[in-house]
Amino acid sequence: MTKWVYSFGGGLNEGGAGMRNLLGGKGANLAEMASIGLPVPPGFTITTEVCSAFYENGNAYPDDLAGQVATALHRIETAMGLTFGDANAPLLVSVRSGARVSMPGMMDTVLNLGLNDETVEGLAHSSGDARFAWDSYRRFIQMYGSVVMGVPHHRFEDLLEQSKRTLNVADDTAISAESWRDVVEGYKEIVLRETGKHFPSDPQAQLWGAVSAVFGSWMNPRAHTYRRLHDIPANWGTAVNVQAMVFGNMGEDCATGVCFTRDPSTGENIFYGEYLVNAQGEDVVAGIRTPQPMSALRAAAEQRPMETVLPEAYAELLRVRDLLEKHYRDMQDIEFTVQSNTLYMLQTRTGKRTAAAALKIAIDMAREGLITQEEAIQRVPPASLDQLLHPTLDPNAERTQLARGLPASPGAAAGAIVFTAEEVEERAAQGQDVILVRIETSPEDVHGMHAARGVLTTRGGMTSHAAVVARGMGRVCVAGAGSIHVDYKAQTLTAGSHVLKAGDWITLDGGTGAVYIGKVATIPPTLSGDFSTLMGWADDVRRLRVRANAETPDDAETARKFGAEGIGLCRTEHMFFGPDRIGHVRQMIMADESEARARAIDALLPFQRDDFASLFRIMSGLPVTIRLLDPPLHEFLPHGETELVDIAKALGQSVEALRARRAALSEANPMLGHRGCRLGISYPEIYAMQVRAIMEAAILVSRETGEAIVPEIMIPLVGMKTELDRTRKAAEDVVAAVFGEQGTTLEYLIGTMIELPRAAITAAQIAEVADFFSFGTNDLTQTTLGLSRDDAGSFLPYYVDHGLLPKDPFVSIDREGVGGLVRLGAESGRSTKPSLKLGVCGEHGGDPDSIAFFEQVGLDYVSCSPFRVPVARLAAAQAALLRRKAAEVPA
Ligand code: PEP
Ligand code: MG
User: Fold this and answer.
1) Known active-site residue 841
2) Smallest Cα–Cα separation from 780: which of 827, 731, 748, 813?
């Protein structure tokens, strides 16, 4: 016989915290609390397996369920000394849903079940309080009517409001038994009118109606959507908890409350919550009366804290709080009721908390000896650190949403709308807060992005130019907000019926992708000492090294401040856009004879050498990977006529010739065109100049500081070993020349990015000529899925929302597809060269889920934008702990 029903409380505990899958979170914790001796009203849980069986059998219950429920109900009757449906001393019960994980959208609580016109008189008699009995009855009809029978809740509220007006009372507690009796009659009429059915008076029918409503709600559209969004399988099912009622609304020595064992917003170790005297559960959250604080410490003069109003129950609650924290070893969110000064526990669960609270609670609990340091590391969600490192929107601030895009770079920022990078710079120089709004950004906008408070684009995905660059700089960015139309000419942006002009204010929330009209207040980040403590603990356990993607001295400084252990990707093309160099870059590209090209390249050499030298200095001996020029040349070309004329003059060529050259360089699909090492092969002078600049800078800084600098030169977009053969050989020739000229040598590495499927598949061959691999998972995702990283914003969110893809693959690695190629590339590379150093420098290097995967694959390091370094350090530690645990041999 299958056991479908588990009892708890009243001396029989058949479940426990470990049985969450079968009993749901609520049921498992009620049984657990009862088994450690806490005052839990007796009850029983109908298991999640009943829910699954119910749906598998065409909405029918297992045959032996009714018998098991009857036995368990009888146990409650015996424990309480009351009888369900008895006209003199009726047992009343609550019915609540409870899945494995808390699931909004499911059926809510029904209280006071078992009341009808007869039992209400029995309750009035046994409690000696007719007002309380009739108040309980009307609450029951209200809850059951709306939750189980589907009557709109406001129908009941409207009638209640009307009665209060007629009676001229403001507070529910001032309503007499007689008046409640009238309300009950009115409620029953509402039910009949709205549903065409009489309100059920048979307690057994009420019970099964409520149980069926819980199971029915598992498949309602709201619960269905929630499950889809949170990857909860439908076959988990929900449990149903039936529990003896205790009453917080039986007089002034009764109360009900909801509280947290520590402050869930700051993490402070003080009892935090609210309670109401003479009230039932839903009153606290419904806002009908103003709840009062728990602790006297937190109470204002006019408030009535529980500590002073119900001192006995409060003292008992403090004892329970302590017991619960020691038992569960985590902050708990609890619900309780006090009936005639006696405390009863109705629920406990792990409390939700802010990032700051999660951090403080984890560190405090480790120091208090409640948990280990390793557990503390696992208690803080890495992505939540973003909330600590960037300003966030004030949760209490009013706001009007304009549109929503992708949450491309975290933080919150407000500023005036500006449509060009040049104007952003001008206005920012005058001290104004501005937001750069573009359809999409290009390398030419980088200076404006830097000067802006935030960046908004209407096109592009999570690895589009705007997203990658903004993350790198720590600027807020919302990308691909497709419902916004930008008109550069009219200097307006339009979303639905809203038309905003240049200079109007908007606010971006880079954590959610929301765009708001006007200025929404923000809260600055605060980094506590707990933050560095946690980072230190994480560093002690992680195996993966963490580097940063950085090219400017600013980025490198930030990266070090956040604990980066080197630079994993310096995108040299970002250094080509400074006003002092872009002219030379353009001449280099446009020159039609090699002498003019050589002159332009020579002019660029000192700039690059200085750039690299400052990176080496800042990183003082830590590894620095410098990638040679990657993007297609047309990205650097002049767009405007005046710029074209300037270059023509400098090169002594005609404007027409330059225009023709510009047209010749344009490509139908530049992402798959003349870029990466293909450029280095067609224009070897460019790579030669860069290699020379790197080696000269390394020698210079080594001499200056006496530190051994080991530069890592990285060749991008290699698909075939022959490409790396050629570019490596050319680089080695330059290195040898520099060593000869400088009369010295130093160690260096030449490696490649693995960012094309062919490179991953042929990694064993490529490894013969590579000292290291760095997986470029942005391009690898783009090329493996055949999904443009710049155009994905227009349809990818739909894919994710509708379950075609579990997550945006540019954010979190597609383990089966792209991940499979990373694994293959790593294994094949190491089969050729066991010492091959392996890293990842795509945006996935800062994503906690992807980091867990890279730990499994055995990469040596991840590299991510500087602001993500702490996230990566913590995620790497958690991944290492997880892997260690998985490797433990079961006893
Ligand atoms: C990549 O492709 O993953 C990468 C790091 O290079 P980029 O984003 O510059 O193309
Ligand atoms: Mg790339």
Assistant:
1) yes
2) 813
Evaluate whether 517 touches 402 at the Cβ level (below 8 Å). yes
pLDDT (average), residues 291-305:
84
Cβ-based neighbour number of residue 261 at 10 Å: 25
pLDDT digits (tens, 9 = 90+) for 20-58: 999 999 999 999 999 999 999 999 999 999 999 999 999
The answer to whether the Cα torsion of 363, 368, 373, 379 is positive or negative is negative
- Using alpha carbons only, give the angle 410, 530, 555 rounded to the nearest 5 degrees: 40
The burial of 650, by beta-carbon neighbours within 10 Å (0-12 exposed, 13-18 middle, 19 or more buried), is given as middle
Burial class (CB in 10 A: 0-12, 13-18, 19+), 350: middle
Q: Are 760 and 780 in contact (CB under 8 A)?
A: yes
Q: Point out the ligand 1 atom lying closest to the alpha carbon of residue 776.
A: 3
Instruction: Name residues with Cβ closer than 5 Å to ligand 2, which is an ion.
Output: 755, 776, 779
Element (H, E) at 845: none
Angle, to 10 degrees, between the axis of helix 529-541 and the axis of helix 869-887? Answer: 40
How far from the centroid of its chain's Cα atoms is residue 730's Cα? 45
Residue 705 and residue 620 in contact, taking contact as beta carbons nearer than 8 Å: yes
**Ligand 1, atom 6: closest residue by C-alpha:** 776
Q: Can you give the pLDDT at residue 791?
A: 83
Tokens of 860: 């040596």
Buried-state track 33-57, b at ≥16 Cβ within 10 A, e below 16:
bbbbebbbbbbbbbbbbbbbbbbee
- In the chain, how many H helices and how many E strands? 34, 33
- Least distant ligand from the CA of 841: 1
Q: What DSSP element (H or E) covers 414?
A: strand 412-418
Tell me the DSSP string of 133-164.
HHHHHHHHHHHIIIIIT---HHHHHHHHHHHH
In whole angstroms, give the CA distance from residue 367 to residue 537. 12
Do residues 168 and 114 make contact, with C-beta atoms less than 8 angstroms apart?
Answer: no
Sign of CA dihedral 684, 690, 694, 697: positive
Strands (E), 68-200: 83-84, 90-91, 93-99, 110-113
Say what percent of the chain tops pLDDT 90. 70
Q: What does the DSSP 8-state code read for residue 102?
A: -
Nearest-angstrom CA–CA distance, 406 and 459 = 10
Is residue 230 flagged as an active site residue? Answer: no
Pocket, ligand 1, Cβ cutoff 6 A: 468, 569, 571, 630, 755, 776-779, 841-842
Sheet holding 5-8, edge to edge: 5-8, 43-46, 238-244, 93-99, 110-113
**Which residue's CA is the nearest one to ligand 1's atom 8?**
778
For the four alpha carbons of 478, 482, 488 and 490, in that order, the dihedral sign comes to negative
pLDDT, residue 852, reads 97
Overall pTM > 0.85: no
* 198 secondary structure, DSSP code: P
Phi, psi angle pair for 113, to nearest 5°: -70, 135
580 pLDDT more than 90: no
CA 628 to CA 676: how far, in whole Å?
8
556 pLDDT higher than 70 = yes
